[in-house]
Amino acid sequence: MSEKKTILVVEDEPNLRELVKARLEQSGYEVVTAADGFNAIVQARKVKPDLIILDLMIPKMDGYTVCRTIKSTADLNRIPIIMFTARTSPDDVRRGKDMGADAYITKPFNPETLLGKIQELLAPPSAPPGPAPSAPVPPPTKGEQHRIEREAAEKQSREEAQARTQAMLDQQRRETIEGQQDKGQPDETV
Distance between CA atoms of 10 and 115, rounded to whole angstroms? Predict the structure, then answer.
């Protein structure tokens, strides 16, 4: 019989941390937990888990920093890391991948999707290629979609306001230069 795989779960919300831990233990994994970024690195160095499930928004050191630290540490850099977060923007996903994350699963999550991704990442490298055991990532809920659309609209509104402000400043600068030229004052702009 094969040895149990060890998973480090890094999650600051106690109920969710215990829920994920229980589900993984039911699936035959040994689970170690940490509630903040500093302890995540301590546990990773101490236990050398087979896989890490890492929340992004955690105290003491955010998940991006933890991921980058682990992936830049010689004896830890081969540990697969699943970013496990409520942050759903494409920029967050891209940044997670840039920091070295092997997968990105958003909350609320489908436990079967998480277990499938774990199995995929822990599969031996010599395993024949085949369909991924994980279920497809479900589309955002209406609430998530509304939040995504609201954030996009807010970003567009900020960008438009910045453009209007820049246009006003440019117009004022032109008027100041024209006023100086009309009065015969030298143009002091460079």
Answer: 16
Please state the length of the chain. 190
The string of pLDDT tens digits covering residues 136-183 is 445 556 666 666 667 667 767 776 777 777 777 777 777 877 777 777
Burial environment of residue 84 by CB neighbours within 10 A (0 to 12, 13 to 18, 19 or more): buried
Q: How far apart are CA 79 and CA 66, in angstroms?
A: 12
**Nearest residue to 40 (alpha-carbon basis) of 15, 70, 79, 10:** 10
**Of 109, 115, 83, 86, residue with least CA distance to 98:** 83
pLDDT band per the 50, 70, 90 thresholds, residue 188: low
